[in-house]
Amino acid sequence: MTSHHILREFDKGMISLKADVLLMASLARQNLERAMRSLLERDIDLARSVIADDSDVDDLERKIDQTGIDIMVRFHPVASDLRLVITSMKMAHNLERVSDHAVNIAKRSKKICKSLPLDEVGLAEPLYSLAGKLLRDALMAYTDANAELGEGLKVRDRELDRMHKQMIATLSGRLETSPGRSENLLHLIFVARSIERIGDLAVNMGEDSVYLGDARDIRHEHSKASTPAPQGSSESDALA
Amino acid sequence: MVSMQTAIQIQNVSFAYGAKQVLHDVCMDIPARQVTAYIGPSGCGKSTLLRCFNRINDRISGAHLTAGSIRIHDVDINRADIDLQELRRRVGMVFQKYNPFAKSIYENVAFSLRVAGKTKRADLDDIVEDALKNAALWDEVKDRLHSSAFGLSGGQQQRLCIARAIANQPEILLMDEPCAALDPLATLKIEELISELKKQYTIIIVTHNMAQATRCSDLTAFMYLGKLVEFGPTMQIFENPKDPQTEAYVTGTFG
């Protein structure tokens, strides 16, 4: 709703909640972007700053949860207000995990950077590019309560799953042929897995945006469908 | 809702106080043995509609149905041959301000039974006890049944009024802001009572307290300017209202 609530404190709480989610999203995306740049450009300092800055994202998650709880206790929001509070808290949880994956990538990057250059890091770039788009659109779906955009993310994530599988297959092959580089190749496998998980988190956020916009719960619908959707990569794939 | 038995059929009801039209073409089926809540800003017509269900608006000069019909068990309750006393026995009412008679607790419940011709003491004792038990008041008053009703707390007096209404074995219980004059704990006791009573009675409640509507009703109707804007399951009305006016009202952005 664009109209103002009769209670100004309520409006202030809701505005602050949404602003904090957007701030958290921008920090999480920035962390991811820097983690990937540290990997591709062999920049250890950048990796260190990602690891150090993750606590800001954690703090925002706590703040968003507290604001959401305050709003629920004090104002008992209903309808679109209720959905915004619930979705914002879920967004915060998912964004915190995105930032955690950025930290994982940064940690792997630090280790990779300490060895000889690894040509295969370039394989992660297209995955990152797609995951970044999914993340951007998930955030747009939340900002605009755009259920259609949110719902479309699940299908788009399948391409990321496919690319991830392909990358794991390539890296697994090289593990056999280049045993001397196995440690770094394994680090890169975990980087790919983090990127793939970020795509899943974008899907989660898209699903939450469908609830925000249309009050529909579309989670886990693939498990009910008659034709199962591609499973994408699971942990066992990534570790195979 | 389709599978539920209908307690009251409201068909194209319009209602006026003299020349002032206050209800406009209201249509809805109120299901039996459910709690239906009416919400809406003051003056939207929700209490007027409630008062149409037992025709106590008839007591107001110039008040009349200008169109449509209200049917209970497929009988038009505005028919000329309707026995109003019997209608009001079947459709009991509890008001915003608890209003026990200036009599004992026992007599408050027994009074209307005596008026209806029941005078055997043993029968009255049983009915009074059952009504007070159903109103969750028996344990608190069983040792002082013959004390004045005015010695009870506000919440107890309101439950006594509920006992008085259900002693007549109504089918439908109308509640016009039954907790407006009560403290939060007494309010919760009435709400708990409502959820018990709906097993036996169709309950229709008018409330300004939206949290109360979400807590104790199965269905919610939003009224505005004498019109029914939206009627549906309470969870849907408060999670995903279909009408922008309902959304604006329940979220507090109205007006």
The mean pLDDT of chain A is 91
End-to-end span of chain B in angstroms? 31 Å
Order of helices and strands of chain A: HHHHHHHH
In total, the number of strands of chain B is 10
**Largest sheet entry of chain B:** 6 strands, mixed
* CATH topology category name of chain A: Methane Monooxygenase Hydroxylase, Chain G, domain 1
What level of helicity do the residues of chain B show?
25-40%
Contiguous low-pLDDT stretches of chain A (5 residues minimum) are 226-240
Task: Give the gist of this structure.
The complex is a heterodimer of chains A (240) and B (255). Chain A has 240 residues and is mainly α.
Describe this structure in words.
- The complex is a heterodimer of chains A (240) and B (255).
- With 240 residues, chain A is mostly helical.
- Chain A has a single domain, classed as Methane Monooxygenase Hydroxylase, Chain G, domain 1, CATH 1.20.58.220.
- Helix content of chain A is 81%, strand content 0%.
- In chain A, helix 5 (147-177) packs antiparallel against helix 6.
- The longest helix of chain A has 35 residues, at 79-113.
- The radius of gyration of chain A is 19 Å and the shape is elongated.
- With 255 residues, chain B is of the alpha/beta class.
- Chain B has a single domain, classed as P-loop containing nucleotide triphosphate hydrolases (Rossmann fold, 3-Layer(aba) Sandwich).
- Chain B is built from ten helices and ten strands.
- In chain B, the strands form two sheets. Chain B has a six-stranded mixed β-sheet, sandwiched between helices. A four-stranded antiparallel β-sheet of chain B has the order 2-1-4-5, covered by helices on one side.
- In chain B, a hairpin with a 2-residue loop joins strand 1 and strand 2 (20-31).
- In chain B, helix 3 packs parallel to helix 6.
- The mean pLDDT of chain B is 94.
- Chain A binds chain B through residues 1, 3-7, 10, 75-83, 214-215, and chain B through 210-211, 214, 238-241, 246-248, 250-254.
